[in-house]
Amino acid sequence: MRLSRAPRAVVTAVLLTAGAAATAVAAPVAGPVAALTAQVNAQPTGPDCLGTVHDSTDERTVKGDNAANEAMHVEQAQALAREGRTKPGQGVTVVVVDSGIAGYAGTAAVELPSGHGVAVAGIIAGPDQPEPAVQVGIAPSATLVDRRFYDSPQRQQETDVVPMAANLAQALGGIAAEREGGALGGRVVVVVPAQVPAAPELEAQVDRLVRSGVLLIAASGDRPAEGGFPDGYDGEAKKGEDAARLVWPAAHPKVIAVGVSTPGSRSTVLRSSAIDLAAPGTGAVSKARNGGWCVVGEPSTAWAAAQVAGVAALVWSMHPDEDADQLRTRLEQTASGNGEPSSPITGYGVVQPVEAIRRDVAEMGTERKEQIVPARPPRAQDDVLAGARHDAIWWGLGGGAALVVLLMLRPLLSRRT
User: Fold this and answer.
1) Can the peptide bond before residue 163 be classed as cis, meaning omega within 30 degrees of 0?
2) Residue 84, pLDDT above cutoff 90
3) Which residues contact 145 (CB under 8 A, 6 or more apart)?
4) Tens digits of residue pLDDT in 231-290
5) Where are the transmembrane segments (predicted)?
């Protein structure tokens, strides 16, 4: 996550548990990981995005900096876009499939059962806080489209509508139909910051949506409360844990599944071999239901998915000729890892918008392949002395045998003389 092309370290610190982080972070941590650790630990302060209700007027401002955006060097990436005479996110549509995003761009309170979708939208394209000045949206010029499919992230009341596979399949099918009808524009990111079980209809609609040419991004999964989904994954992470096949739509191979890179997040997010990219997942400043600004606190793959969606929109606005597959390659091959999806927490690594904007992906991909190809053992060379050595061995054996015979005959010969 820096402007140079110096080698980037694999994000290993994210494997630490919260309890071990204090001692393990003392070990050397290089490059973007060190920056991420230092900056995200400097959390902004203010009302919690999910705790702020729509009629609250006393808590509307945040103090400090957007630590997550700083860790990803969003400001520098936005500056590159403006230097290229492009507004960050311009020409890109981001469809937010969540609990509703009404009011994310304004200052008026909105009536929504949950502020989850508003916070997601604010991370992607929310307006900056004017006083005190705090940067908010990653791609503020992107066009956001609201596709609400639930009311509450958790069942809190009998009337709540919680994330369900059938509801999500219906929502994604509707987006696919719009896309097939020529709506939503040429460059479309669809973000699903939610986790639901697998279902045949959901898989079919994800297939359909991906075929339409959108870039589909989803949360890889948070650790549930006791009795929540996925069943049996509450509490501490177990050895060999892998939720890759359980959490949808992140489980689909064509979906970018997003994990959390912040150290100490292991107790709140699931380990999954499906993870492709990662983002801080905490420390961001966003918008609340009361029209003010707020802080996303506890690490979540939902917030991380929103951050990757914002980065995708920002980068795509600078590379308008690329399709969704090419953009995905660009994001993965410029992430902070080693060019391989090696981590069950961060996949290819943390998204790096500056690198994604500036790097030549074809050139960079060649570099990484050359770096990670295992060295082959040297080929055995022809033994040019083999013939001479063979003759020498036999001459040596013959000479040795003759010497032994002479030594044995020496006493007999001496007596005769």
Assistant:
1) no
2) yes
3) 93, 94, 95, 96, 184
4) 989 988 888 899 999 999 999 999 999 999 998 877 899 999 999 999 999 999 999 999
5) 392-413
Q: What is the predicted pLDDT for the residue at 12? A: 29
361-372 helix and 324-333 helix, angle to the nearest 10 degrees: 50
Could you tell me the two tokens for 118? Answer: 């508003």
Is the CATH code 3.40.50.200 the one for domain 35-152+162-372? Answer: yes
Distance CA 347, CA 338 (A): 10
Whether the bond between 132 and the residue before it is cis, its omega within 30 degrees of 0, is yes
Give the dihedral of Cα atoms 39, 45, 49, 53; nearest 10 deg.
Answer: 180
Cα 246 from Cα 223, distance rounded (Å): 12
Average of pLDDT values for 408-417? Answer: 54
Partner residues linked to 93 by β-bridges = 143, 188
Per residue in 187-213, pLDDT (tens digit) is: 999 999 999 999 999 999 999 999 999
Exposed / middle / buried, residue 15 (Cβ in 10 Å: 0-12, 13-18, 19+)? middle
The CA distance from 259 to 382, in Å, is: 52
Residues paired with 303 in a beta bridge: none
